[in-house]
Amino acid sequence: MDDSEHDVLAYLAFPAPHRTKLHSTNPLERLNKEVKRRADVVGIFPSEASIIRLIGAVLLEANDEWQLQHRYMGVEAMGEMLNPAPTNETLQLPPRAA
């Protein structure tokens, strides 16, 4: 368990406003559900390329929605990580759930 500490706490390296969006897998689960729903409509794919096109289209559509609705981290927010403003912020562990 001691070896996994770095991986478990990796999200703390991100700016504080991003952390709340990183700790949840809800957006990923919703995206996977949408990909499955679209694939089930087609049923049988004629080739691997057709699967890649469909899934790529779903991912592009989801990306566009996320960018327009600002529900997730946009390009500007991710740019903050590349050039962070200097702060004296101390990383704190969140309180444990009861």
Automatic annotation (TrEMBL):
MF (Gene Ontology): DNA binding; transposase activity
Bilayer-crossing regions: none
Pfam families membership: Transposase_mut
Keywords: DNA recombination, DNA-binding, Transposable element, Transposition
Alphabetized InterPro entries for the sequence: Transposase_mutator
Gene Ontology BP term (one): DNA transposition
Assigned protein family: Belongs to the transposase mutator family.
Protein's job: Required for the transposition of the insertion element.
Name of this protein: Mutator family transposase
Organism lineage string: Bacteria, Pseudomonadati, Pseudomonadota, Alphaproteobacteria, Acetobacterales
